[in-house]
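Format notes (please read before filing issues)

Several people have asked whether sequences and structure tokens are stored in separate files. They are not. Every record keeps both together, in the order shown below: the sequence lines, then the token lines. Line labels are part of the format and must not be stripped during preprocessing.
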Amino acid sequence: MALSEIQRAQVTKGLTAFCESRVPAAVRNKMRIGFRLKGSEVVLFKERGAELALPPRVEDRARW
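Then the structure lines:
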């Protein structure tokens, strides 16, 4: 079962704060922790170095 809009907003808010707090400011240009929402699935991921292209922190593939 997919998350409701209210649940998606709560998850997005909480995980955005969580992900931003886990990477020190000094290395944010070299490493990033993000998440992706798809249906009822929430995936946390870490990117380093060359993987840090221009995509946003939150990838909502349902909107693509």
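For reference, the curators noted about this record: The mean pLDDT is 83. The chain has one helix and three strands.
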